[in-house]
Design goal:
The chain is of the alpha/beta class and 205 residues long. It is built from seven helices and seven strands, in the order αααβαββαβαβαββ.
């Protein structure tokens, strides 16, 4: 299929992107790593020895950052429908995190340890139909929140990508039902024209 004008423009911007070039130079799987690094620098989410679950982790940029921050005594468990190339100090489960078999595998890996942080940089495959794409993105964010509410240790934190638009305000209200503090973050590595923001819930009730 012949590349469209839009896809050519995206590729040109991507190749010239400052964060893409930095990721290649510094060995990160994706430019998204810098979003988590900036949020963590501000909010100090990732602590030595903690257990982190990364939902929709592939290609692994966030898991890389988390594994470095939690250290050898911490745990990072990544989940995704897509395969993940092996990463140092990251345990991977391939499958849908809503399925019983995947949750059981997670439980075995946790071996009784409590989850201190759930992170999600998931986004749907874009169809180009704004209303449908927004509905799908909110649905993914809701699934991540539901997982966090069910599995996070009391006092734990949750960070997820959410696109502003229909359903966004309702989503923020849902988060406030489960976390004592809810804030919005827009890291520098998040493209200006993108409606994505990162919702952070701290101190799970």
């Amino acid at each position: 299929m012949k590349p469209t004008k839009t896809s050519k423009q995206w590729m040109r911007e991507h190749v010239n992107d400052h964060y893409v070039q930095m990721a290649q130079k510094e060995g990160y799987r994706s430019r998204a790593a810098y979003k988590l690094l900036e949020i963590d620098e501000r909010d100090h989410l990732l602590k030595q020895g903690m257990v982190v679950v990364d939902l929709g982790a592939t290609p692994g940029g966030w898991s890389q950052v988390a594994a470095t921050k939690v250290g050898d005594k911490g745990r990072v468990i990544a989940l995704d429908l897509l395969p993940l190339a092996p990463l140092a100090r990251v345990e991977f489960i391939q499958g849908d995190f809503r399925e019983e078999s995947v949750l059981k595998e997670l439980e075995v890996k946790l071996a009784g340890k409590q989850i201190g942080l759930v992170i999600s940089d998931m986004a749907p495959n874009i169809s180009g139909i704004d209303s449908a794409d927004q509905a799908r993105s909110i649905h993914l964010a809701e699934l991540a929140l539901e997982f966090a509410v069910q599995h996070l240790n009391p006092g734990g934190a949750f960070l997820a990508k959410v696109f502003q638009g229909s359903g966004f305000e309702e989503y923020v209200k849902m988060m406030r039902n489960h976390f004592k503090k809810v804030v919005t973050r827009k890291p520098k590595a998040s493209r200006d024209r993108s409606s994505e923001v990162y919702m952070l819930g701290m101190d799970k009730i």
